[in-house]
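Field: COMPLEX_INPUT
Field: COMPONENT_COUNT = two
Field: RESIDUE_TOTAL = 525
Field: MODE = joint
Values follow.
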Amino acid sequence: MADSKTRQIKVDYLARVEGEGGLQVKIRDDQVQEVHLRIFEPPRLFEGFLRGRHFTEAPDITARICGICPIAYQMSAVHAMENACGASVGGQLRALRRLMYCGEWIESHALHVFMLHAPDFLGYEDAIQMSHMHPELVKDALYVKKVGNEIVSLLGGREIHPVNARVGGFYKAPARERLNELVERLRWARDATREAADILARLEFPDFEQDYEFVALSHPDEYPFCEGRIVSNKGLDFPIEEFYDRIEEEQVPYSTALHSRIRGRGAYHVGPLARFNLNYEKLSAGAREAARAIGLEPPCRNPFKSILARAVEIIYAFDEALRIIEQYEPPPEPAIAVAPRAGVGHGCTEAPRGILYHRYRIDGEGIIRDARIAPPTAQNQKIMESDLRELIGRNIGDDEEKLTLKCEQAIRNYDPCISCSCHFLKLEIDRTGGPDPT
Amino acid sequence: MHESSMMTGLMRQIESIARVQDATRVVGVTLRIGVMTNISPDHLREHFAMAARGTIAEDADLSIVEEENPASPFANQILLEAIDVAG
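Field: COMPLEX_OUTPUT
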């Protein structure tokens, strides 16, 4: 194959599956005309895989949708199945589910705040570059993430795609001593996060207040994880069963992910900032104190400050985990019996990135006949596009490199699943009629 | 289901290596596929041809080396071994 005019280059590169994102912008006479955030990750067809499977398999199948937030998928699935079968999990089993969810928020938020978002703000290519100047911050952040993983691992059986959650509860409930072993590390990591939050508060945030409709779960007694009504700052307040009566999904030609909108209204914002704004009073006293100290007050409408909301939620998750462990008594059985019955079930929980809704129709034998899943990143797509439109409009004279960096940061505010690849954005700007960018 | 995402990543890698080498064209690509990879050489060829269209590697000659050893650390991997560039 190689002749005198060609050279062979040895590479040895492992081909990997990566999330894919692109941004197409049309500018005419210095006006942004069109902004298309393209997600060209091929369709993954999970809703199709679920059809014909037994209802008890849903938590294990849907956990594979995401390696960062498998608990969210498991929790939305088990709650939906229990809802369909008329079962309700309470007491210590319910508390253990919240505890496992705390672990997921900690590891997911710590990854995003310190490994992806903070390097953006501080002008580093990635966390590895950042570690040269801020070694202690990176080391502490990795420890915080590790403690989150330990909770998931202890309750879920393993860190990634855990296997211990089931419809009705768990396959195995932990002994008290096992949870107690975590306490000291949880306290240390909580304090480390509190200190790191002070560093985050000194970051420079662009002035970018937007008039969002924030949507999150709301529960009368607690900061929401698995239960509550869906509420917004602009008057929405409905039970999760009405999700598709209030929210519609639309297919757009340039993305494989469906776009969501509130029927008759439009785009909405889900995630930590929405939760913080709508549930501030339900945060632990320590988390509220941290929020005040770092200057984060509800309502905060600046998406760049979502990094602060995530930090506050990490602190909350530690406080809540410690509270649950302190009150823990092993349940008599690791799960309650749940018998299948024909019907439709709904589950909506607060994944780290925002509300994650599942709906299943099952038959009398417990076979899944239909499945619908609305993940938070899909729900945030429209709001990401509107942020980008606004941001590009304000910085229209920037060259492509500067603009790409700003757009990446704006997308990162939503911690979309595609952000796994550190610098992922393929920016295509089509400009005519305006002056050449300098 | 993941093939096209994987191929897009592979093409990006090939293009960036070719760019660094100041190559005008990629004329050959050698991939090694493990015996545990869930993809057949024919299937891989189809995806490669599709992903290469319009890139610097369009019409590149694709050689696929099949790794038969299931105990190989790359048994379930696709490895880009080498590329041949012109210019």
